[in-house]
Amino acid sequence: YERIACMTDTFGPRFSGSDALENALDWTREEMEKDGLSVVEEYVMVPSWVRGREFARLLSPRVKELHMVGLGMSVGTPGKKSLVAKAIVVSSFQELDQRASDVQGKIVVYNVNFDQGYSNTVKYRTLGATRAEKYGAVAALVHSMTPYGLQTPHTGATRTTGIPSAAISVEDSRMLARMQARGQEIVIELYMEAHMLPDKPSRNLIVEIKGAEKPDEVVVFGGHMDSWDIADGAMDDAGGAFVSWEVVRLIHQLKLRPHRTLRAVLFVNEENGAKGAEQYYLNHKHESKLTSIAIESDEGTFTPLGISFQGSTAARSILEQIGKAFLAGIGSGNVSGQSIGTDISPMVSISMSCFSCHRDDIHIFSVMLEYHHTQSDTVDKLSPRQLQHCAATLAVWTYSIANLDFLLPRS
């Protein structure tokens, strides 16, 4: 906890392409070396997107500043000038298609019901501008990807297209929908300076404990070091990255030597490009047949419940046995089939066994999504005790898998 606090307090947001990220990586490497760990840096070229100044203002039926934040990788408003247009509010892509003839020259506002959950609504953030542009829209505004309000807009990545895209607060999105339902004309002014710069060099950090018997066979796990430019990123994902580091530190301190190599990877550029994951996969593709499993910790560091697994039925059965044998007593040994994280997705594509660390759903929806990709993702939201629980649980999973008599079977 103290290291996460020091890193996030000292360096703040660690967006890809920023000096803050590189300085945080330097600091983290130095701290790892203080632990007696050998650190490898693998260089990655990452995109460099700049937010610049931005605002959104309701002009009709009344004047009001809208709570907004530009979406990552969006373009700015044309000519670095503000854009003024009527708005049309839709609740789904289906409604957008049905009202296509009304979209030309307008700002499309997606007031999406978040009851469908994050995985079913995030498509409006990533594809909303693309779909709106197809019908002649001049910009897209998206209901923040959260069920909660407090007038806090949540950023996130969007697919770059020819029109600007931003997120607005839950309250503002719902207000605009009510105005439209009354038949009131909605006029919005939008200004965004967002633009791209040339790619910049960064690096993944890797620490290992070499296997005593089969050092060429590997258990890979990790989280990501980058955060959004507006967020300290304590939950997303300094916690996951530092828990992975802590696993290696603990096992090193205990002077344990697993049969296979344990490798923690602190990825960069998960938030807006996944270039760190892509580069790791390219650098280590030759090891893929010798990698038993790839594990990601990027769902917060709350009370661990188990894992979200993707892989063969045989591998799942083995993991269920490990969970029951070593983690059932503390409720952390459950194996479910759910989503797999961004940084291990390249390895999923080659049928490697993979899992994401699964956390307490109550905390994911009541805490993480409340602060996700906002200025409020700060270290005070983390619990030192829960961080310890996550590190201990991940240590059991990784060490147990590394000590099996065989590699986990593939699909």
Automatic annotation (TrEMBL):
Keyword Heme recorded: no
GO biological process, one term: peptide catabolic process
Domain Peptidase M28, chain residue ranges per copy: 204-396
Keywords: Carboxypeptidase, Endoplasmic reticulum, Glycoprotein, Golgi apparatus, Hydrolase, Lysosome, Metal-binding, Metalloprotease, Protease, Secreted, Signal, Zinc, Zymogen
Protein localization: Endoplasmic reticulum; Golgi apparatus; Lysosome; Secreted
One GO CC term, this protein: Golgi apparatus
GO MF annotation terms: carboxypeptidase activity; metal ion binding; metallodipeptidase activity
Highest taxon in the source lineage: Eukaryota
Keyword Glycoprotein: yes
One Pfam family this sequence matches: Peptidase_M28
Record text on subunit structure and interactions: Homodimer. The monomeric form is inactive while the homodimer is active.
PANTHER family, per the entry: CARBOXYPEPTIDASE Q, PROTEASE FAMILY M28 PLASMA GLUTAMATE CARBOXYPEPTIDASE-RELATED
Record protein name field: Carboxypeptidase Q
Organism: Selaginella moellendorffii
Species lineage: Eukaryota, Viridiplantae, Streptophyta, Embryophyta, Tracheophyta
